[in-house]
Amino acid sequence: MTTRKIPHGLYYEDFEEGRRFDHHWARTFSESDALWYANMTMQYNPIYFSAPHAKAMGYEGILVHPLFAFTTALGLSVEDLSEAGGPFLGIDDLQFRRPVYPGDTIRSGSVVVSRRATASRPGWGVVEWTTIAVNQRSERVLEFRRRNLSKMRDAAKGV
Q: What rounded mean pLDDT belongs to the chain?
C-alpha cells in the first residue's frame, strides 16, 4: 500500500506584507483545563487553583495561566502560518493584556509584518507576523510577534 502526500501550509511568496489571517479555530478553556495546566506545570501560585484566594487578590475567580493562553493562541495560528514547516525563530514583544478565565473562548488573528529572503539559506525567507488573541467579548487578551523560516515555492518544487 502506498500513501499519498497531501501538501499543507503556505510558502514564503504567500505572505505579502499586510496580509491578514483570521485563524478559524477557537478554544474554550474549562476549569479542568486551567487546573490541569497549573498542576502539570507546577504553578504553585494559588490564583491558578484557589477561587477564594484569586478573588481575594481582585480576580473574578481562578485564572487560566497566561502561558497556557499564549501557547493556545500560537497553536491556533499554525495551520495558516507555519504548517508547511520551517524552523521557528522566536517570539518577541509578548504582552498579556487581560486575564483569561475558565469559560473564556479565545480566537486569534495575525498580520504579516515583514518578510525577507535569506542570503545564508537559499530558497528560504524569514517571515514575521503580529498575532492578537481576543476573548468572546472581542477584548484583547494577548499579542506577540513571531518569526519563522518559510520555504520558497520554487525550492519546495525542487527547481
A: 93
Phi first, then psi, for residue 30 (nearest 5°) are -95, 170
**Nearest to 65, CA basis, from 100, 117, 114, 40:** 100
Short-list 63, 82, 73, CA closest to 26 = 73
For residues 120 and 158, which has the higher predicted lDDT (pLDDT)? 120
Residue 142: name the closest of 85, 55, 77, 87 by CA: 77
Pairing of strands 105-117, 20-28: antiparallel
Confidence of residue 157 (pLDDT cuts 50, 70, 90): low
**Which residues are 109's β-sheet partners?**
22, 132
- The amino acid present at 148, given as its one-letter code, is N
Tell me the residue type at 13: E
By residue range, what is the domain housing residue 140? 15-30+65-157
The Cα–Cα gap between 137 and 8 comes to 31
The answer to whether 54 and 62 are in contact (CB under 8 A) is yes
Cell numbers standing for residue 126 = 524569514
60 lies in some domain: no
Are 84 and 9 a contacting pair, CB within 8 Å? yes
Distance CA 53, CA 71 (A): 25
How many domains is the chain built from?
1
